[in-house]
Amino acid sequence: MPVSLIATQGLTKTYGPVTALADLTVSVEPGVIGLVGANGAGKSTFIKIMLGLLAPTGGSVRVFDLDPTRDTDRVRARVGYMPEHDCLPPDLSAAEFVTHLGRISGLPRTAARERASEALRHVGLYEERYRQIGGYSTGMKQRVKLAQALVHDPDLLLLDEPTNGLDPAGRDAMLNLVHRIGTEFGISVVVCSHLLGEVERICDSLIAIEGGRLLRADTISAMTTASDVLAVEVSDGTEELAAALTALGLPVRQDGRLLLVPLDTEDTYDRILRCVADLDLPLHRLDQRRHRVAELFAPKEPADV
Ligand SMILES: Nc1ncnc2c1ncn2[C@@H]1O[C@H](COP(=O)(O)OP(=O)(O)OP(=O)(O)O)[C@@H](O)[C@H]1O
């Protein structure tokens, strides 16, 4: 079996009385991975544990099959980290700063300078790399933080809320850049966000946490598989069709222009089709509804509670 990129077993972290992560068991394959959850869900704590900056209170974590608490140097040599908060020296140029961090990562002087230029080129700051960071926009500062995470040529990037403070256009640009890094450079990326909608479109898989507990970890494609609900839409006569289907004993639920019918038996599909034909209604669509990723955090319907 291939080694997981990240694997945890019963991972728990408490800060005094606060439980930030509770019994989290998850295993993810390489790729672009979204780590999503509301503010305070435990995302930053999880990232810091993966980096060996914090030790778990209980359970275990492995990154590249290494223990970040014990093999901290080996893990950090392969992982780049972009922290959430601004931590940039305003009076240095991006080139100086990223070169400096390359040196701290153990690169020789010339290699550090070259790698810094390269990383700044990748994030679109090559032309402005000799300007002082203090004069940069928020978007440019986020890119410097991304460049410093890339400077030592890591195999995995841990990005904590990389779109923080950016306007919609800046967010899009940053997400496209993260996606490009994941796909073109073959680097795995864990991108943390409290906004599900923003990461779902650039990720291969998602880890969703709520209150420190795992909600679900899966590939996006598995999360959006066909559900066992048929969606039928007619251009006209929705109410009429709903009444006719109900009269046939089918439990119909209306969702805007859609009528949703559980796919309980094999003939449900044909019965709906026949009913639409009998009423001579213009059929717009009849298909199996796909799950949406947003259902992850959707409040449960009363019937499910
Ligand atoms: N050093 C600390 N001491 C005490 N409590 C902490 C500490 N760091 C985090 N917490 C608490 O642990 C919980 C998880 O925090 P964490 O920062 O990991 O969440 P998060 O999902 O990254 O949220 P955010 O996006 O707001 O940073 C929160 O309730 C937070 O208040």
From TrEMBL:
Pfam families: ABC_tran. Keywords: ATP-binding, Nucleotide-binding, Transport. The keyword Cytoplasm does not apply. One of its GO terms (molecular function) is ATP binding. CDD domains: ABC_DR_subfamily_A. SUPFAM superfamilies: P-loop containing nucleoside triphosphate hydrolases. The lineage of its organism: Bacteria, Bacillati, Actinomycetota, Actinomycetes, Micromonosporales. This is ABC-2 type transport system ATP-binding protein. Gene3D superfamilies: P-loop containing nucleotide triphosphate hydrolases (3.40.50.300). Residues 6-236 form the ABC transporter domain. Belongs to the ABC transporter superfamily. The keyword ATP-binding applies. It comes from Krasilnikovia cinnamomea. Transmembrane segments: none annotated.
